[in-house]
Amino acid sequence: MILINGVVITNDKDNNFYDKGAVYIKDNIIEDVGNSDEIQKKYPNEEVVDVKGRVIMPGMICTHSHIYSTYARGMAASRPTDNFYNMLENQWWTLDRQLTLEDVKLNGQTMFMESASMGVTTVIDHHSGPHSVTGSLFALGEAAKEIGMRASLCYEVSDRDGLDIRDKEIEENIAWIKQCQKDNHGDMLHGLFGLHASFTISDETMEKCREAMEGVYDGYHVHVAEGIEDEWECLKKHNKRVVERLQDFDILSERTLAIHNVHVNEREMDILKHNNTPCVFNPESNMNNAVGCPPILRMLEKGLLVGLGTDAYTNDMFESMKVANILLSHNSCDCTKGFGETLEMQFQNNPKILERYFDRPLGKIEKGAYADIITLDYDPFTPLNKDNWGGHSLFGFTGKIVNDTIINGKFVYKDKEIQNVDRQAIHAKSRERAAQAIWPKV
Q1: Share of the chain above pLDDT 70, in %
Q2: What share of residues in the chain are helix, strand, coil (percent, to 5)?
Q3: If you ran DSSP here, which 8-state letter would residue 72 be given?
Q4: At what angle do helices 163-182 and 136-147 cross, to 10 degrees?
C-alpha cells in the first residue's frame, strides 16, 4: 500500500520532509518514503491511497495512562476529594473496586478506540481493579487485539486491598509478562510489572515483587513521588526518599518507567540518571490533582530520558503537548522554556522509550520502522515546512483533525470511522454499565 499526495513529516534523524510525499507500506513495515511521483514509479503494482493533501506523520505515543479510569468521564464522586489522598481513596480506588472483567474489556475497547481516533498508535497502560484482577491484563490484551492498538500493559501492585488481592496482582503481572514473552502478537503486545506507589507498598511486598520477577524480568512501571505524601510516608517509615527505596529493591533500570516524579530532589534525579531509568511527565493530571509541577527542566538538563503521557486525563497527545508547553513556561516563569522540551519529550524521547520494549522503531516514518502512521486533515494558513512543523504540532494539530490511523500497516481508523468493531454498540454497553453498575457505588 502506498499513501500518496501528503505533506510527509518523517521525524527521522535527518528530519526529512516532503511537500507532496508518499509512504510505501509493505505488510506492517515502512519500506520507502519520498516524493509521490518517484515512489509510485518505483512500485507501480501497489495499491494506492490518495490522502489528498493531508498531513502524513508518525502515530502519537502515550507512555503512561490508566484504562481503568474510563468510566470516570461525567462521574461525580459522593465523598470528599479535597486533597490528593482523598481523591485517590474516594474517587479512583472506589471506582476501580467496582470493575468486573466485562468492565475491564469495555474500558479497554473504548479507550483504545478513542486513542486511535486521536492519532495515538501505542499506549503504555497501568491497570487497577482489585476485584477483577485475575485475567484483567488478558482482557485488555484482547481489547487491544480487537481494536488493533499496540500496547504495553501491567497491573499496579498495592497493599491497599489486602494481601490475598496483592498476591493475585503479582501473579497477574507475571502471567502476562510470560505470555507476552511467549507470544507478543507480532510485537503488538508487551508486559511490564506494575507497582502503584511507595506509600501503598510494604517492604514485604516489594521483596515479593522482586522475587517474582527473578527469571522473567522485563521492567517495572511505577508511580514516583506524585504527591508529597509519598515522600513523607517514605521518610517516616523507611528513613529514605522514594527513589532511594526503589533503588534498594532493584526496581530501577533502563526498562523501568518512573511516572510523575513531582517531588523528587537532586539526589533522586541523580539516582534515576545513574540507572538510566526513563521518566514520564503527565502535565494535565498533575495540574488537575494539584500536586505540583515536576522538575522536568532540571531532569532534562541532567540528561534524563523524559517522555510524555496523559495519566488518562485525556487520550489526545496533542492536547497533552499543549499543556506541557504552557505549564513548563508558567512554572519556570520563563517564556523561552517549554516549547523545545515538549517537542523533545513527544517526538524524540517517547520513541526512544519504546525502543526499549519493541523490536523496530516507532514514532518515525523511515525504512524499517513499524507502519504506525496517521493523517491529519490540516489546511494551514501559514507555511508548514521541515523547520516549523513542531510549532504546527503544538499550536495547530489536535486529535480532532485526525482522519486516518494506521497501526502495524492496517487501517484502524479510516475517514474518521473505527474499522474493526462496532463502536456505537460498544459505547452503548459502556454507558449502560457506567450508569447502572458503577456510578451508583462511587
Answers
A1: 100
A2: 45, 20, 35
A3: G
A4: 40
> Would you state the cell numbers that stand for residue 71, as one nine-digit string?
468510566
Residue 181 Ramachandran class (φ > 0 left, ψ -120 to 50 alpha, else beta): alpha
Per-residue pLDDT at 217: 78
| Residue whose C-alpha cell is 499506549 | 123
| Sequence-distant (≥ 6) Cβ neighbours of residue 241 within 8 angstroms | 225, 231, 234, 235, 264, 265, 267, 268
Looking at 239-365, list the stretches that DSSP marks H as alpha helix, in order from N- to C-terminal side: 242-248, 266-274, 283-288, 296-301, 317-332, 339-343, 350-355
286 neighbors 294 (Cβ within 8 angstroms): yes
What is the average per-residue pLDDT within 373-389? 98
Q: Residue 335 carries which side chain, given as an amino acid letter?
A: C
Do 213 and 207 meet the contact criterion of CB atoms below 8 Å apart? no
Return the residue matching grid coordinates 535527518. 14
What is the per-residue pLDDT across 132-189, written as a single tens digit (0 to 9) for each?
999 999 999 999 999 999 999 999 999 999 999 999 999 999 999 999 999 999 999 9
Distance CA 418, CA 147 (A): 8
- pLDDT reported for residue 77: 86
